[in-house]
Amino acid sequence: MNAFSVGTNTYHTAVKNNITNESATGSVKDQLSTAKKNGNAVFLVITSTNVKEISKLATVANQANKKVKKSTVIQMNRDDAANKELVTQYGLASIAVPFVLVISPKGMAVGGYSASQVTADLLVKLIPSPKYDEVLVAINAKKPVFIIAGKKSFTDKASVLTACKVAAKAVVNTPVIIEVDMSDVKEADFLKQMGVNTLSTKTVTVVVNSTGNITGTFNGEQPAKTLSDAANKIIKKSCCPSGSKSGCSK
Known about the structure:
The protein is an alpha/beta fold. It has helices spanning about 30-35, 55-65, 85-90, 120-125, 130-140, 155-170, 190-195, 225-230, and strands at about 40-45, 70-75, 100-105, 110-115, 145-150, 175-180, 205-210, 215-220.
């Protein structure tokens, strides 16, 4: 995996089409805030005033909602003046509607699909794992990340964590340190995307710079300077292509 991508240029509209809402009342912004507070992923169905038919999209969004316990479906009319801030925030002004945008439990827009492409399974796959969500939040804040993947039984984990804390002090935009348990099944796909060998007998540290590029992968204990140098490394070209799905590409 070479780079992380945060956000997307896709959105949705509000129409009465049997869509379950986070709240029966309140603005879209308030509903999104409530979903984030509750730790729910959101399937945001986006339309515009000129879009009259979203039944297929509504059905698929509700199917995805049923597959994910902590999720909700919210409608948004892109043309409603009350949603202008959200349209700008998520870059929805020019996307073809109707569209379903997936927002992570921590409020990160991670991708979406048009009515011709969407399936419930594709929407569900866009929801990041808990630790991946933390990484996306950090990258969105322009922070480097030290991802420490290990197991409780690893004797080197404490020293690896210490080295990361020391290294973080040498980086201007203080990196976020995120620990991931290799045994956590919820993080299996994320670790695989990062290229972490979960059969490793040593703690693995993956360094991501502030622009979302992976700039180093290390096994076992490393000097703090090696880690800080990786966090400060600039890669001019990201190999993560733009697209409907945000994430890491190898």
